[in-house]
Amino acid sequence: MNLLAVVLQAQGGADYSFLIMMVAIFAIMYFFMIRPQNKKQKEIAKFRKNLEVGQSVVTAGGIYGKIKEVEDNTVVVEVAAGVKIKVDKNSIYADAQAQPAK
């Protein structure tokens, strides 16, 4: 009963502090979470669009190899001498040359 009285009293005061707080929280989430994620997705899409034959890449499964053929939606990757696999373009994760040394 006491909690209900507090809630009813809080709604009676029509100040805009709650609205301002919600807008501020959304703005913080947008600039720290949503915007960087969208930027990263655009960079990855641009990378996948510009794949070239001979480029060293890493697949999403962690397979390192060199691109031998680029088709519309697939890429043929040579993982060892004479061993080629066909993978979806969306599973190409990164440029193997750009991976940081551990």
Automatic annotation (TrEMBL):
Superkingdom in the source lineage: Bacteria
- A single cellular component GO annotation: plasma membrane
| Keywords per UniProt | Cell membrane, Membrane, Protein transport, Translocation, Transmembrane, Transmembrane helix, Transport
Transmembrane feature ranges: 16-34
How this chain sits in the membrane, per its record, is: Single-pass membrane protein
Primary location recorded for the protein, binned into one broad class: membrane
**Which GO BP annotation is one of this protein's?**
protein transport
Localization per Swiss-Prot or TrEMBL? Cell membrane
Q: Which InterPro entries does the protein's record reference?
A: Preprotein_translocase_YajC (IPR003849)
Q: Specify the signal sequence span.
A: none
Q: Which PANTHER family match?
A: SEC TRANSLOCON ACCESSORY COMPLEX SUBUNIT YAJC
Q: What family is this protein classified in?
A: Belongs to the YajC family.
Specify the protein name. Sec translocon accessory complex subunit YajC
Q: Tell me what organism the protein belongs to.
A: Phocaeicola plebeius
